[in-house]
Amino acid sequence: MPLHESIPWIAYPGKSDDERIAAAQAFYEEIKTRRSCRYFGTEPVPRDVIEAAILAAGTAPSGANHQPWHFAVVTSPDLKKKIRSAAEEEERVFYAGKAGKEWIEALAPLGTDENKAYLEDAPALIVIFGQRKGGLYPGETRQNYYVHESVGIATGFLLAGLHAARLATLTHTPNPMSFLNAICDRPKNEKPVMIIVVGHPLPEATIPTHAMIKKPLDQISSWL
Length: 224
Ligand code: IYR
What we know:
Blueprint: H1 17-31, H2 47-57, E1 69-74, H3 77-98, H4 101-107, H5 118-121, E2 124-131, H6 147-164, E3 168-172, H7 179-184, E4 190-199, H8 217-220
Antiparallel strand pairs: 1-2, 2-4, 3-4
Helix pairs in contact: 2-6
Bound molecules: 3-iodo-tyrosine (IYR).
């Protein structure tokens, strides 16, 4: 018997191995159609979609189940404008030399630059914060663990949920991005990890061919 307080393992409806294979392959077919979008229209997205995707993200495994994340959803045109302007300021410095030659060369096939119109055009920006402290229950100040890993997994769930709803997404990481604490009204001990830009692609949106190259199974896995 386990030492912890527990409930029985969830009785999933059973699947045959053939059904498992079909389900895993169907998920692969679904998720592989997600592409980062850098050209967003201004058409709004339903709040319920974003809330469901955040709830899905909130089910991610996390260090000691402390769920060390906060999702600040920015739809206010004024705040999006502030985020764009602060991010573009960082990016100007980045592209003007701070990034270094090797990084700039690695980004060349993506065609990115310091212009971030999508931060204002897209109807929603989800700013993800990692919490170094906080524990599980409101008001706790306990240490959190594996914050980066936990937030990374939750972000993956969030992207998958938004994609399932056929919204376009972009992971955006201006560096440094401490300006996001003030704009999103979050405490200093939270660290902004990423902005997820959410919305609808413009009809003329394009994808860099570089982004279409995915490593084959034998390069990304080994069986021992
Ligand atoms: N944050 C910059 C640079 C950038 C960095 C990486 I690594 C990318 O994969 C893409 C962009 C920008 O958004 O332009």
